[in-house]
């Protein structure tokens, strides 16, 4: 097995990550429905879900979760989708992740630690109520 992907495959993967960042829910969902792995990860360990959460796209977060994206995966820095959504104060993304079972105490920093560090009391309250 080779560790190298051809240029066309890399370009496709980059485009999928860009779709997650942009919140292009319909196009990304179509790719997932066609077989794109819901837990596709880039060279920094960021999943499509982490990127969608970080860029505050709750519809994309929900689409990824409904297609099997793992809410507990952390990137290479220990950050989770839930912590990313909290950092961006994306209430709907946080709610979707909590409903899917995301743990506010998981990750480094955790979502709770992120809310406290950045003085986001509404996010702390949402996480504790979740």
Automatic annotation (TrEMBL):
<keyword id="KW-0677">Repeat</keyword>
<dbReference type="Pfam" id="PF12796">
    <property type="entry name" value="Ank_2"/>
</dbReference>
<dbReference type="InterPro" id="IPR002110">
    <property type="entry name" value="Ankyrin_rpt"/>
</dbReference>
<feature type="repeat" description="ANK">
    <location>
        <begin position="77"/>
        <end position="109"/>
    </location>
</feature>
<protein>
    <recommendedName>
        <fullName>Ankyrin repeat-containing protein</fullName>
    </recommendedName>
</protein>
<feature type="repeat" description="ANK">
    <location>
        <begin position="44"/>
        <end position="76"/>
    </location>
</feature>
<keyword id="KW-0040">ANK repeat</keyword>
<dbReference type="GO" id="GO:0004842">
    <property type="term" value="F:ubiquitin-protein transferase activity"/>
</dbReference>
<dbReference type="InterPro" id="IPR036770">
    <property type="entry name" value="Ankyrin_rpt-contain_sf"/>
</dbReference>
<dbReference type="GO" id="GO:0085020">
    <property type="term" value="P:protein K6-linked ubiquitination"/>
</dbReference>
């Amino acid at each position: 097995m080779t560790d190298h992907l051809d240029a066309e495959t890399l370009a496709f993967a980059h485009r999928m990550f860009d779709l997650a960042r942009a919140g292009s829910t319909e196009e990304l969902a179509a790719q997932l429905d066609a077989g794109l792995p819901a837990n596709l990860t880039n060279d920094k360990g960021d999943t499509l879900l982490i990127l969608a959460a970080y860029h505050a796209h709750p519809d994309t977060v929900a689409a990824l979760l409904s297609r099997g994206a793992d809410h507990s995966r952390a990137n290479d820095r220990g950050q989770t989708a839930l912590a990313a959504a909290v950092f961006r104060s994306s209430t709907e993304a946080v709610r979707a992740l909590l409903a899917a079972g995301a743990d506010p105490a998981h990750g480094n920093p955790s979502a709770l630690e992120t809310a406290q560090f950045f003085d986001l009391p509404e996010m702390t309250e949402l996480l504790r109520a979740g």
